[in-house]
Amino acid sequence: FGSSYCGLSYMVVFKRRYVFFEVAFDAAVRANAVGDDDVLQSIYEALAVNWGDTGAAQAAVRMLHWSTAVNVGVVRCARALEEEFLASLVFVRCIRGRAAQLRVLWTGGSPQAAQRAAARVAAGSDRRGMGRAVTRVTVFETCYSGARGGFGQHQNIIAA
Length: 160
Description:
This protein is of the alpha+beta class.
């Protein structure tokens, strides 16, 4: 890990970003039906499809926490590929055969800040996160009905 230059030893610090996210499913999911491995596998697949195997490897994604009770998690990724990682989360469409959508609630540079963000969301002081289940289900119904009905119907839904 360390190297020396002119007698001084130094280490390269691997910069990381922590992403706190939630997964919205199109229907109620049984407790423990979707595990952290399933979510991580879907994220890896989206990274590999959109950024290639090299991009997926360079992102160095690791699941730090996953809650099956409320479908939220914390993932660590390389800071250099943060934008690519966040973009690939948009393309996750199913997890373990169930239609799903990942929504980023917070990104930051330390795991302690991720814990504080999770506490704010759980306490309800962060209005963006969790507690809008009806809205999420409505969005899923709108998107899937729009996709089944074709682009014309989808444009009518967007205009409304």
